[in-house]
Specification:
134 residues, alpha+beta, 5-stranded antiparallel sheet, 4 helices, 7 strands
Length: 134
């Protein structure tokens, strides 16, 4: 039977990178960011989260939510039947963890005042080239 599941990912700490990665996956208008937790709906359960992608966008069994934890990380809350849409390792660069890591890398490089060039190689891998001027 379908139910909400939680995925602890202590590496998801940068809210801006997480939101940008989700917007790449689901579209800019489809990611809700709230100051306080709002209700999210699973197939047969409810929960609360500050960052939300609604069920119609997911095309799945329930909403996708991210709830801020006391250690600063974001807990993923989603229907167990939808996990493959977000965390499937076979999705390569389409997987949330890969998109999040890319966003964190880009933010850090730009913060260091580097020129950043991004491209996709012949195998579909994202290649980031950073150059420092000085």
């Amino acid at each position: 039977m379908s139910h909400n599941t939680t995925i602890k990912n202590p590496d998801l700490k940068d809210k801006n990178a997480l939101v940008k990665a989700l917007k790449e996956m689901f579209g800019k208008k489809n990611v809700e960011v709230h100051d306080k937790p709002v209700r999210i709906q699973g197939y047969s359960t409810t929960s609360q989260a500050e960052i939300v992608v609604r069920k119609p966008t997911m095309g799945g069994y329930g909403d996708l939510g991210f709830q801020r934890q006391t250690d600063g990380s974001w807990l993923t809350i989603m229907d167990d039947l939808d996990t493959h849409k977000v965390y499937n390792k076979d999705n390569g660069n389409k997987n949330l963890n890969n998109r999040y890591a890319r966003q964190v890398a880009l933010q850090r490089l730009r913060k260091m005042a580097m020129s950043v060039k991004e491209e996709t190689d012949h195998k579909g891998r994202v290649v980031i080239e950073a150059t420092i001027y000085g």
